[in-house]
Amino acid sequence: MDEEKTVMRNFPMNAVRLCIDHYEDDIQGRLYNKMSPKELSFQNCSEMLLKTDALFDHHGYPQTFQEKRSFYKEKEKQGKHGVPKEAANNATIEEQRGRYCTLDMIILSRRCAGWQGILLYTDGTEAARFQSEMELLEHIWKILADTDRISDRPIDQENKMEEKQ
User: Fold this and answer.
1) DSSP one-letter string for 69-97
2) Rounded to an integer, what distance in angstroms lies between the CA atom of residue 14 and that of residue 106?
3) Long-range contact set of residues 55-64: C-beta below 8 Å, sequence gap at least 24
4) How would you class 76 by CB atoms within 10 Å of its CB: exposed for 0-12, middle for 13-18, buried for 19 or more?
5) Peptide bond into 62 cis (omega under 30)
């Protein structure tokens, strides 16, 4: 008897699970991270980037290499030092899946007002490395285009067909 072994992945605090639920002209979906007790929904790729950056800024991890300045009155100094406390566990993040596609982003650093990191498939294999948010988005779009080629009907299309019947 061969039993399928499920290996629990360890998600570092700087990892974000990207669950893409809809993909047409832009992506829509949810983000999961160990520093956030709840999902972060996004309606487009810009909002995905902004919400992820706000999460990192709020917790100060991964730390930015330069401080953001503003002409508006500062509310409070954000960005604690050190590793923040865990608000979600590995199992909670691991079970999350996008209806269309699921990827993991590991942000290694935030230099030059940008992100540098690794994009992974859910099995932990490396999909790509990126040096900026634009490179990250290019890799995501390429993976989504490849997903379209592999499957004639993405999951979103299948669900629409089932709803009509």
Assistant:
1) --SSPP-S----SSPPPPSS-HHHHHT--
2) 6
3) 55/16, 55/31, 56/14, 56/107, 56/110, 59/13, 59/35, 59/84, 60/84, 61/13, 61/14, 61/35, 62/14, 62/107, 62/108, 62/109, 62/110, 63/110, 64/110, 64/113
4) exposed
5) yes
Distance CA 58, CA 62 (A): 10
DSSP calls for 19-51? EEEEESSSEEEEEE-TT-SS-EEESSHHHHHHH
Taking a C-beta distance cutoff of 8 angstroms, is the pair 108, 154 a contact? Answer: no
pLDDT less than 70: residues of the chain: 1-8, 62-84, 148-165
Q: Which of 147, 113, 151 is nearest to 132 (CA)?
A: 113
pLDDT at 12: 86
**CA-to-CA distance for 132 and 72, rounded, in angstroms?**
27
pTM: 0.74
CA distance 41 to 48: 8
